[in-house]
């Protein structure tokens, strides 16, 4: 029979120190070997110290037993960042052939209180790998729950991506991205997830098949919030490694020009235009006119004639994005070195 | 020597108005999103601080811009000796606590010599008999705590400290942590990510045990973690992130495979992470945080020495449709340890080919005004508590920004590069390992003989 992986039975009972538990009577606790002059010494509470002393005894003895399993749960409860305990717990679970679904419930309860802990998520991945595709949907539900509390939790996103790639569950993922972006279009993690779905979902045909509709979607998001950096980066990402296609898609320079009509100093629009020119875009008359007008509208602008359109955009950016003046000054030097 | 462009700090109003969330665009929206609301709160707090500064008489400015050395030293030194019960959550990170505190004190040039031997003794108790260091005595060896322990020992720098590292076993431990993909896992059965690869390669390079066997496959793994945004993620397909971007970039330099990354897009992504608050955010559309002063600031500082590679990449990318990262093949075929040993050393000897790519003065402004805590220690942002981690990385970032305008890594910055009184100047670091530079040189000599 597989043992239960929960900690001591009757959790509602008053906590009993390990030294007074009959099932641990034969264990000789091992104190921490901090030496005669410890540094970064933590003033442990008695409860913490005692549980750790008993844990050390079983860990050093390599005892893979039910009572060891219970004790690891207690240590994890006190300090879920203790990777040694998690590692030992996995050895015990394997030795006891424990019910891993129950273990998943255990770790989920801990994760809900400590959602930003490396060990917990690693343990979940270890379990999910063993449980296989059947667990995929449950895992997606769980990360969805964690992401509903913090939509940018890095660990939760990594886990979700791993489950998708290893165990599946792609069916509703694009819809989930849509939903998150509807809630908060500035959520860059959701944009990043969208990129994974578009490029890797076995159900959608990959980036080449999705690019066209994605450009439309992204352009819409940019026009709704031109100051939102995420869709600008995503738009460029849709043409990663495909400079010729990027140049050929008129929607890209169009959206830049549209945005600049309302906000002539939009850094993201100017920056993307600059990138387009750098990879060889032949500027339309409209583009030339727009940049010329922006340049002339600034009374501070120096009289000097810029060598080319890209340099002119750099000059504008140097003025309207003073925080990045060093970056734009450098960018400017890369233009002259190309011609 | 001074570098070409030296900007003045951005106008003080920058943080108080404008910004992605606070302008007219937002007002037209039906509602503000969570990201916008959180951003506005931080901008308001930071703006208030800056308004006080710039509303003051000119001589008050330099007072406010002072680095509160004594208070920081007191806070840090206290932590080295005693930590309260709430620190039990860091019980598996005690070498990290040593590193955060000792490195911060070294930056302030204030390492107390009476505890050096105690630290060496304590870390020896964390060293596993089969190699590597755990989070405390008797704990499983872990690559991140190994990095923290070795960096601490290098920062102490005594013969006793440096010779306490069992390099033969350390090498075997690292080989055991290598996955079939080439990437490293943190500990036996532990997670694989860019942090694990960085901590492994950084330590191996520092103590001169890096060879082709350890290096194999790491560069390909990290290349796969560069995202469409330009930054590097913790794992392939995850979101570009400042911490992993530093770790990935530094690793690639130490492996001499940095040409496999798309450097121009990496630089562009990091440069855009500095925001109206003057500090760096860790990811696109996330909040400013003092610790990214180092992770993002140092990543950009590293690229100041990579301009030859960047220029090569730009040339080839403009003439072909493939990004530079894709066609770079690992030409580094040598597997000799001596071959790898010198990359960290040669790198720091190289001059900065350009000035800083971020706003080095603005970054100092954020650290000094928004990250310092009056009672000592530094923090993420106004409203947050201080901690040792943020104290370490805010000060590391401060050092990076003070020295970033110089052509040579160890040259003394000019007064105009140091915001506030010149006594704010910290010790320079080796940015690939984040240890104080002269301590690095001592260790380099020790481990290469
Ligand atoms: Zn932080």
UniProtKB/TrEMBL annotation, chain A:
Q: What is the protein name stated in its UniProt record?
A: Protein farnesyltransferase/geranylgeranyltransferase type-1 subunit alpha
Q: Which reaction does it catalyse?
A: geranylgeranyl diphosphate + L-cysteinyl-[protein] = S-geranylgeranyl-L-cysteinyl-[protein] + diphosphate; L-cysteinyl-[protein] + (2E,6E)-farnesyl diphosphate = S-(2E,6E)-farnesyl-L-cysteinyl-[protein] + diphosphate
Q: One MF term in GO for this entry?
A: protein farnesyltransferase activity
For the region Disordered, what residue ranges are annotated? Answer: 1-21
Supply the alphabetized keyword list: Magnesium, Prenyltransferase, Repeat, Transferase
The UniProt family comment states: Belongs to the protein prenyltransferase subunit alpha family.
Which Enzyme Commission number(s) are listed?
2.5.1.58, 2.5.1.59
Please tell me the species this chain comes from: Oryza sativa subsp. japonica (Rice)
What ranges does the record list as Polar residues composition bias? 1-10
From TrEMBL, chain B:
Q: Bias category Low complexity: which stretches?
A: 14-24
According to its UniProt record, the EC number is: 2.5.1.58
Cellular component GO terms, alphabetically?
A: protein farnesyltransferase complex
Q: Name one GO molecular function term.
A: protein farnesyltransferase activity
- Pfam families, from UniProt? Prenyltrans
Q: Tell me yes or no: is Repeat among this UniProt entry's keywords.
A: yes
Where are the compositionally biased (Pro residues) regions? 1-13
Q: Which InterPro entries match?
A: FTB, PGGT1B-like, Prenyltrans, Terpenoid_cyclase/PrenylTrfase
Cofactor(s) this protein cannot do without: Zn(2+)
The segment(s) forming the Prenyltransferase alpha-alpha toroid domain are 68-435
Give the UniProt keywords, A-Z.
Metal-binding, Prenyltransferase, Repeat, Transferase, Zinc
- Ranges for the region named Disordered are 1-24
Q: Quote the cofactor binding remark.
A: Binds 1 zinc ion per subunit.
Q: Which EC class, in a word?
A: transferase
Catalysed transformations (reactions): L-cysteinyl-[protein] + (2E,6E)-farnesyl diphosphate = S-(2E,6E)-farnesyl-L-cysteinyl-[protein] + diphosphate
| Function field | Catalyzes the transfer of a farnesyl moiety from farnesyl diphosphate to a cysteine at the fourth position from the C-terminus of several proteins. The beta subunit is responsible for peptide-binding.
Assembly, in brief, is:
Heterodimer of FTA and FTB.
Protein name according to UniProt: Protein farnesyltransferase subunit beta
């Amino acid at each position: 029979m597989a043992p239960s992986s929960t900690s001591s039975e009757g959790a509602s009972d008053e906590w009993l120190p390990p030294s007074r538990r009959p099932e641990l009577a034969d264990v000789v606790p091992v104190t921490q070997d901090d030496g005669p002059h410890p540094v970064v010494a933590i003033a442990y509470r008695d409860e913490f110290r005692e549980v750790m002393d008993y844990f050390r005894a079983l860990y050093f003895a390599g005892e893979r037993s039910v009572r060891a399993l219970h004790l690891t749960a207690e240590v994890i409860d006190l300090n879920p960042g203790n990777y040694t305990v998690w590692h030992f717990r996995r050895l015990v679970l394997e030795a006891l052939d424990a019910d891993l679904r129950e273990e998943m419930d255990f770790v989920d309860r801990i994760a809900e209180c400590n959602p930003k802990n490396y060990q917990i998520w690693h343990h979940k991945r270890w379990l999910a790998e063993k449980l296989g595709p059947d667990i995929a949907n449950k895992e997606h539900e769980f990360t969805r729950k964690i992401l509903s509390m913090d939509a940018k939790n890095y660990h939760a996103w990594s886990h979700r991506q791993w489950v998708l790639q290893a165990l599946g569950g792609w069916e509703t993922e694009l819809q989930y991205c849509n939903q998150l972006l509807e809630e908060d279009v500035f959520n860059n993690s959701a944009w990043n997830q969208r990129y994974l779905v578009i490029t890797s979902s076995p159900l959608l045909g990959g980036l080449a098949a999705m690019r066209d509709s994605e450009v439309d979607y992204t352009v819409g998001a940019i026009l709704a919030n031109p100051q939102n950096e995420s869709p600008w980066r995503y738009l460029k990402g849709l043409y990663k490694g495909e400079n010729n296609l990027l140049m050929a898609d008129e929607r890209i320079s169009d959206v830049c020009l549209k945005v600049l009509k309302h906000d002539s100093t939009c850094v993201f629009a100017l920056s993307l235009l600059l990138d387009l020119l750098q990879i060889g875009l032949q500027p339309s008359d409209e583009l030339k006119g727009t940049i010329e007008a922006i340049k002339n509208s600034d009374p501070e602008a120096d009289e000097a004639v810029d060598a080319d359109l890209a340099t002119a955009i750099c000059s504008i950016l140097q003025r309207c994005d003073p925080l990045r003046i060093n970056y734009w000054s450098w960018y400017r030097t890369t233009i002259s070195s190309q011609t | 020597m001074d570098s070409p462009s030296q900007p003045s700090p951005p106008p003080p109003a920058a943080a108080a108005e404008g910004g992605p969330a606070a302008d007219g665009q937002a007002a037209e929206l039906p509602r503000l999103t969570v990201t916008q609301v959180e951003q506005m709160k931080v901008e308001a707090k930071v703006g208030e601080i800056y308004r006080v500064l710039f509303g003051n008489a000119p001589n008050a400015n330099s007072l406010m811009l002072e680095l509160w050395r004594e208070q920081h030293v007191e806070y840090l030194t206290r932590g080295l000796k005693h930590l309260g019960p709430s620190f039990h959550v860091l019980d598996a990170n005690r070498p990290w606590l040593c590193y955060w505190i000792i490195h911060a004190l070294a930056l302030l040039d204030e390492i107390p010599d009476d505890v050096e031997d105690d630290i060496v003794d304590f870390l020896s108790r964390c060293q596993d008999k089969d190699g590597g260091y755990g989070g405390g005595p008797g704990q499983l060896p872990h690559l991140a705590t190994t990095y923290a322990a070795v960096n601490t020992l290098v920062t102490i720098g005594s013969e006793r400290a440096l010779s306490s590292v069992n390099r033969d076993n350390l090498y075997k431990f690292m080989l055991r942590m290598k996955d079939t993909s080439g990437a490293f896992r943190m500990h036996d059965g532990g997670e694989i990510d860019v942090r694990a690869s960085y901590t492994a390669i950084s330590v191996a390079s520092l103590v001169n045990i890096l060879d082709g066997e350890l290096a194999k496959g790491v560069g390909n793994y990290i290349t796969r973690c560069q995202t469409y945004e330009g930054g590097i993620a913790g794992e392939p397909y995850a979101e570009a992130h400042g911490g992993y971007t530093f770790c990935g970039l530094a690793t690639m330099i130490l492996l001499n495979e940095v040409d496999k990354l798309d450097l121009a897009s990496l630089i562009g992504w990091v440069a855009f992470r500095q925001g109206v608050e003057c500090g760096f955010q860790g990811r696109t559309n996330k909040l400013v945080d003092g610790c990214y002063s180092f992770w993002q600031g140092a990543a950009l500082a590293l690229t100041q020495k990579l301009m030859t590679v960047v220029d090569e990449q730009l040339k080839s990318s403009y003439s072909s449709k493939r990004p530079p990262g894709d066609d770079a093949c690992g030409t580094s075929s040598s597997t000799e340890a001596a071959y790898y040993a010198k990359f960290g050393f040669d790198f720091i000897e190289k001059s900065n080919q350009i000035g800083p790519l971020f706003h080095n003065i603005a970054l100092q402004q954020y650290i000094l005004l928004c990250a310092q805590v009056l009672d000592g220690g530094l923090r993420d942002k106004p409203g947050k508590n201080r901690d040792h981690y943020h104290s370490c990385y805010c000060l590391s970032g401060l050092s990076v920004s003070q020295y970033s305008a110089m052509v040579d890594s160890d040259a003394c910055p000019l007064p105009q590069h140091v915001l506030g009184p010149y006594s704010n100047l910290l010790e320079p670091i080796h940015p690939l390992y984040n240890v104080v530079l002269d301590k690095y040189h001592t260790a380099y000599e020790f481990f290469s003989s």
